[in-house]
Write a structure and sequence with these properties.
Blueprint lengths: L11 E5 L5 H13 L4 E3 L5 H7 L3 E4 L6 E5 L5 H8 L3 E8 L2 H10 L7 E6 L7 H7 L6 E6 L2 H9 L7 E4 L4 H14 L7 E21 L7 E8 L2 E6 L14 E6 L3 E4 L3 E4 L8 E6 L4 E23 L2 E8 L5 E3 L5 E3 L8 E6 L3 E3 L2 E3 L7
Parallel strand pairs: 1-2, 1-8, 2-3, 3-4, 4-5, 5-6, 6-7, 7-8
Antiparallel strand pairs: 9-12, 9-16, 9-20, 10-11, 10-13, 10-15, 11-20, 13-14, 15-16, 16-17, 18-19, 21-22
Keywords: Amino-acid biosynthesis, Aromatic amino acid biosynthesis, NAD, Oxidoreductase
Organism: Methanothermococcus okinawensis (strain DSM 14208 / JCM 11175 / IH1)
Enzyme class: oxidoreductase
Length: 370
Amino acid sequence: MLKKGMVNFMKFGWILANDEDWEERKETVKDALESSIPAVMVPKDDIEKVKELGNIKIISNDLDADIVVINKDEDLDILLNAKKLGKETGVYVPIESKEDEEYASDVSKYDYIDYIILEGKDWTIIPLENLIADLFNENVKIVSVANSIEDAKTAYEILEKGVDGVLLIPNDTNDVKDFSRLIEKMNSEKLKLDYAVIKKVEPVGSGDRVCIDTCSMMELGEGMLIGSYSRGLFLVHSETVENPYVATRPFRVNAGPVHAYILCPGNRTRYLSELKAGDSVLIVDKEGMTREGIVGRVKIEKRPLMLIEAEYNGDIIRTILQNAETIRLVGEDGKPISVVDLKEGDKVLIKADENARHFGMAIKETIIEK
């Protein structure tokens, strides 16, 4: 089984709806739904009422919950039974003493416990760092209870690695929205981009071209990393540039032919032909900052194509794009440059990768692409 130290896990966040009145808890749940928070923690009497509000995971001390969580010192057999029902499981541990820390560490090592939820009563006595270090190579995910966005940010960043998740007790609607933005920012990776020098631009006939329409609005400087070779992906700009021919489509990247690779979250590549509605893709800006985008639609149409060939550190990399004025790469000045204006000697942004790819995953292997 994979250890946490071997894999880059995405940070996640949950909301604790602990208001005294159901009507107030209901508003918190609705805020979480509207902010795409994946799960809420509620009393067991709220489970059916939350299900009526929308599709969101429910965390509660009951076998009807999606994530069954018991309190410290409750019978662990409850979680064994939950596992048999296909549920996720967790233990909620308030840390008030060294004994509490030891208990959290011990129960986290049971293979039927998915989450250890830690409420720090006094982190100056029992630092969260101890448990992060102790459980780094265990399969359990560490969740810290936070009372503010600042506390949540600190928990995500402790010991550079930080906790896997945060259970936020929000003060108001703005806290929930800010929390959602914080999670997106924490999961945003900065990629190293560099410039390759254009060597050849020539028409190559017609082929099946893929347009990716996302559920996000992109801005100038944003696009997706696409190419014929995994070792060199070109930053293909989104259709956000005003032009006299067609209206802008800021949700779209005209990506290239069906065979091309696209970089997706988790440093995985996929073929453009594989993408479908609901899939995740990586939106990248000219500085290398990334965010996740959801595919809303993929359009495959026969269009005239153009070969783009560039040199990077003595290596030739290539991609193929539609031969049209509205398709752009990103030039040396960070501005979009149309493929019909590309010429030998121009510099364009790429992401180089020395790894080969096997089923989209980076591996250390020699593969020849030409």
